[in-house]
Amino acid sequence: MTRADLLVTNLAELVTCEPCVGEGPLGIIAGGALAAAEGRIVWVGPEARLASEVTAAPGAARVDGGGRVACPGFVDSHTHLIFAGSREQEYALRARGASYQEIAASGGGILATVRATRAASLDGLVELALPRLATLLAHGTTTVEVKSGYGLRTADEIKMLEAARRLNDLQPVEIHPTFCGAHEVPAEYKGLPDDYVNLVVEEMLPAVVERGLARYIDVFCEEGVFSIAQARKVLEAGARVGLRAKFHADEFTTLGGAELAAELRALSADHLLKARPQGVARMKEAGATATLLPGTAFFLGLPSAPARSFLETGVRVALASDFNPGSSMGPNLQLVMTMAVSQMKMSPEEALLGVTLHGAHAMGLEQEVGSLRPGKQCDLLLADVPNWRYLSYCYGVNHVNGVIKRGRLVWKRARCA
Length: 417
Ligand code: NIG
Ligand code: FE
Fold this sequence. Notes:
Elements: E1 2-15, E2 28-30, E3 32-37, E4 40-46, H1 50-53, E5 54-72, E6 74-76, H2 88-95, H3 100-105, H4 110-119, H5 122-138, E7 141-147, H6 154-170, E8 174-182, H7 193-210, E9 216-221, H8 228-240, E10 244-249, H9 257-263, E11 268-271, H10 277-286, E12 289-292, H11 294-300, H12 307-313, E13 316-319, H13 333-344, H14 348-354, H15 357-362, E14 380-383, H16 390-393, E15 400-405, E16 408-412
Parallel strand pairs: 1-5, 6-7, 7-8, 8-9, 9-10, 10-11, 11-12, 12-13
Antiparallel strand pairs: 1-2, 1-3, 3-4, 5-14, 14-15, 15-16
Bound molecules: N-(iminomethyl)-L-glutamic acid and fe (iii) ion.
């Protein structure tokens, strides 16, 4: 008999995202139940078998699913959610025809957020990020990647990453930090990107690593920002000190970021609106994940990434929010799934895997989170939907009713009076 300290029962569907555990590509168990002990899943199966296979420890918690659908907590593998200030004026300018790159070239864009973030204190950044994380959690996200990249000088990059570390201890969403010192060339290095790259590699990176503040390394590899050669330098320096590469690649121009991701065995290359199909095919060979950010294309009014052609190469496709104040001010992965299906023609199954198991792969966390099978963290959401397809089919609303993180009910929708 398996012993458990948490039982989740009375579910219409348990969507495990593990095909070998249930029916179809999402491993669905109709009338399924789940048991966990000390924050990890110990059993999943049809509820009819629960009583004969699992014993509840004295004082075990019981969550009545109320006939809802349960699925893995979402894994948002690309965000910039620590920042100060806001850029709603740029959003309005784009509606009048300005492009993201034009706004950036005129001193707005990332550099506007850099000015505000440099001016903020560590405590101030934490205070600003807490409600954002609460919104993520309420929309079903239980694990998130968070980047630096609005400091662009050593003390401010460290400040952002210290904020990420503190936030990890202050609220339930699990945060994994990325050093993204090469997010933009700061004003004081205008025209001197190579000098700035040297600062990133020689001063910032060692300072970040010495404090154990990052798990991944990122660079905005883009025309007018950092070239392939500069990106290679930053990512290789990160790899030498144990930071896995996941980076902004081939977003607005075809530079060969996908090929670089394959060559460097990156965890993921992200955006890829302009990636060459052969580059994406090489990513598949190298085991890298293609992380698509449909909210960004949507918010910037750009055509989406050619997800179908990527999927045909067999590359693993993750979906993330890219939550940031400039190009994607939206944290809702349910809506991201809708965009993936309606704009990029991904199947609803591919979309749900994109925000769960494949998001976990994009962070190298596929043994820990992203699906519901024994051994993994007990991270799940309960959705007020008749079946899992409604998660992306019925859009623009939050379907989440409850969220469990590491075996604890950490968010519950308040009942109306
Ligand atoms: O992923 N492309 C670079 N970085 C972000 C935008 C950040 C910003 O505009 O503040 C992105 O879209
Ligand atoms: Fe981004």
